[in-house]
Amino acid sequence: MKKLSVLFAAIVMFVSVGMAKAQKIATLDLVSILNAMPEKKKADTDLKAFLDVKEAEIKKKTDAMQAKYKLYTEEAPKKTEAENKSRGDEMQKLQAEAQQMSERAQKDLAEKEKVAYAPIEKKVMEAVGKVAKANSYDYVMDVNSTGLIYKGGPDATAAVKKELNLQ
């Protein structure tokens, strides 16, 4: 019985080593591919412009709020307690509006990124799939991934860039 289990373990080890050697693994630098794509550059530019507009709106709102706060602070000793309380409530409301505006901008940016990058990601994944099939790669790993332990196999970056007509 013991000999049988040792024999079985040896067979499993032999088969798994044989299977591991039969697999072709390639690596690619996904970041360099994306950075070379004109579609990605345009999407980045559009998203940056959108973000700049939203940041300007938020800054305008916070600047107005700070100016009002400064005025209210200077006038506070001359106002009644009821007026100061009303002004304090107004400032809290303005601060909440600014916070909501910032959160909305972040959500809008995330949605725009998703929409802008989806076709780019699809195009790259299709090109990677074509290159992998053409070169019989079983796995293609991104060199920028933290899961990459060893990089000794062929590099598919050039082939994917060629497939996408990039330099």
Automatic annotation (TrEMBL):
Keywords on this record? Signal
Q: Which InterPro entries match?
A: Chaperone_Skp, Skp_dom_sf
Its signal peptide is 1-22
Specify the domain of life of the species encoding this protein.
Answer: Bacteria
Bilayer-crossing residues are none
Q: Where is the composition biased (Basic and acidic residues)?
A: 75-92
Give the region (Disordered) as residue ranges.
Answer: 75-107
Q: SUPFAM superfamilies recorded for this chain?
A: OmpH-like
Record-stated family: Belongs to the Skp family.
The protein's name: OmpH family outer membrane protein
Q: Which organism is it from?
A: Chryseobacterium formosus
